[in-house]
């Protein structure tokens, strides 16, 4: 959906963010989309905008929140009806905001029934045979944001309104409600190991990472989500037999532990077999000063500067990965950190989203207005819970600083 340029002189906005119900925001460990939503909500609030995040009751993102599910449902455990309820309840709770930013799959289809309401959506997955028809159906009415130029290039013409790379709040590592270290730590790579960080899936190339690390003589640590049956099956068949003194599985990590593990790594080894739409883990590594050795496909060339902040390789060519692992200690870790700050900050990401929000509001003809303060949890359905935490009150009550 094409949009006219936004008005840069407009006042602050009230933004409703709809998160999927599968993981909390931020997630306790694995969860690229939820980590991005946490950074976006914080960034929007820091820029002076009102934010209401519709998430799950166990979320800790320190902005005003509402929910219908008291706990995240878990990846791979819910169905269409669960997401439908999340969306219907969210749109009711967010009915007075200036613009809704929907990150679910069902939401944009539901939003077409409310043509007077400005709604923006982001596709966090590929424009493949499953998802492309969804965005084709809504693209002429709802602005669709892509998360990389490569991902956008695979969409049908006219579907994508804007490309906005993910961002990271490099000034803060969230480790709990209102807590965190001052800045993402810049590591020295003192651990001397390569790190695989992601989920236990063939597309992520864990077995390739093991083969490359073993051939190079560099120790490998594997930190991966492994909660679904197919992830366990892949681990048992392809990964567990290869574990040993130089290849260690450390489990799933998150928060400060994740950044400490990244900072001590010589590099992030990320030999994915598919064209990832983005790859948040790569900018998390760069923020820690850790170079990235990854595949030359998907969004990776938009994130990694080959020969400067990492190396782009063919994932099927183990010898190329081995060569990169031998050369990666020569790269400047300070440059990696600087690149994360300059190109992948949460503030940059938030500002670019605001431009899309303003344009969507302008296209709808609806005037913007700042959301009033006051507890309005009573406006939601009876099953929409209100926060009992006085530091992070629910709905449109201002959040703690």
Structure description:
With 401 residues, the protein is an alpha/beta fold. It folds into two domains: 14-167 and 345-379, Glycogen Phosphorylase B (Rossmann fold); 184-343, Glycogen Phosphorylase B (Rossmann fold), CATH 3.40.50.2000. It is 32% helix and 16% strand. The protein contains 13 helices and 15 strands. It has helices at residues 32-46, 80-93, 106-111, 132-138, 149-153, 206-216, 229-239, 255-263, 280-287, 300-303, 318-327, 333-343, 346-364; strands at 14-18, 50-55, 65-67, 99-102, 119-122, 144-146, 160-163, 173-176, 179-181, 194-199, 220-225, 247-251, 267-270, 292-295, 310-313. Strands 3-2-1-4-5-6-7 form a seven-stranded parallel sheet, with helices on both faces. Strands 12-11-10-13-14-15 form a six-stranded parallel sheet, with helices on both faces. Helix 6 packs across helix 11 and helix 9 (280-287) crosses helix 12 (333-343). The longest helix has 19 residues, at 346-364. The chain is globular and about 60 Å long. 52% of the residues are buried. The model is unreliable at 3-9, 174-179 and 369-401 (pLDDT under 50).
What is the rounded Rg? Answer: 21 Å
Average pLDDT, all residues: 86
Which architecture of the largest domain does the CATH hierarchy give at level 2? Answer: 3-Layer(aba) Sandwich
Number of helices: 13
Considering the protein shown, what is the CATH homologous superfamily of the largest domain? Glycogen Phosphorylase B
Oligomer: single chain
Q: What is the number of domains? A: 2
> Helix/strand-derived class?
alpha/beta
Spatial order of strands in the largest sheet: 3-2-1-4-5-6-7
CATH topology of the largest domain: Rossmann fold
CATH class division of the largest domain:
Alpha Beta
């Amino acid at each position: 959906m094409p949009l006219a340029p936004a008005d840069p002189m407009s006042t602050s906005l009230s933004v409703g963010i709809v998160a999927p119900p599968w993981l909390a925001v931020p997630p306790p460990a694995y969860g690229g989309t939820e980590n991005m939503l946490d950074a976006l909500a914080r960034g929007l609030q820091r820029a002076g905008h009102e934010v209401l995040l519709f998430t799950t009751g166990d979320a800790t993102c320190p902005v005003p929140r509402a929910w219908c599910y008291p706990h995240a449902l878990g990846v791979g455990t819910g169905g269409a009806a669960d997401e439908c309820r999340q969306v219907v309840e969210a749109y009711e709770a967010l009915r007075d905001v200036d613009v809704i930013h929907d990150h679910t799959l069902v939401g944009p289809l539901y939003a077409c029934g409310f043509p007077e309401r400005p709604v923006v959506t982001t596709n966090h997955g590929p424009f493949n045979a499953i998802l492309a028809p969804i965005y084709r159906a809504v693209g002429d009415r709802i602005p669709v944001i892509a998360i990389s130029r490569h991902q956008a290039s695979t969409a049908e013409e006219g579907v994508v309104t804007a490309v906005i790379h993910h961002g990271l709040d490099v000034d803060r590592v969230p480790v709990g409600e209102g807590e965190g270290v001052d800045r993402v730590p810049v590591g020295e790579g003192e651990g001397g190991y390569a790190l695989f960080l992601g989920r236990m899936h063939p597309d992520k190339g864990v077995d390739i990472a093991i083969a490359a690390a073993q051939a190079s003589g560099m120790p490998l640590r594997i930190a991966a989500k492994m909660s679904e049956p197919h992830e366990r099956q892949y681990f048992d068949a392809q990964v567990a037999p290869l574990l040993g003194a130089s290849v260690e599985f450390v489990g799933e990590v998150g928060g400060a532990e994740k950044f400490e593990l990244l900072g001590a790594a010589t590099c992030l080894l990320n030999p994915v077999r598919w064209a990832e739409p983005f790859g948040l883990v790569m900018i998390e590594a760069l923020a820690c000063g850790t170079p990235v050795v990854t595949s030359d496909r998907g969004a990776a060339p938009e994130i990694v500067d080959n020969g400067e902040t990492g190396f782009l390789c063919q994932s099927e060519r183990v010898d190329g990965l081995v060569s990169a692992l031998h050369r990666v200690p020569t790269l400047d870790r300070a440059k990696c950190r600087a690149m994360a700050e300059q190109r992948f900050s949460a503030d940059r990401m938030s500002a670019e989203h605001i431009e899309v929000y303003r344009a969507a509001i302008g296209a709808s003809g609806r005037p913007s207005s700042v959301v009033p303060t006051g507890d309005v949890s009573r406006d939601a359905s009876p099953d929409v819970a209100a926060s009992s935490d006085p530091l992070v009150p629910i709905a449109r009550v201002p959040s703690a600083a």
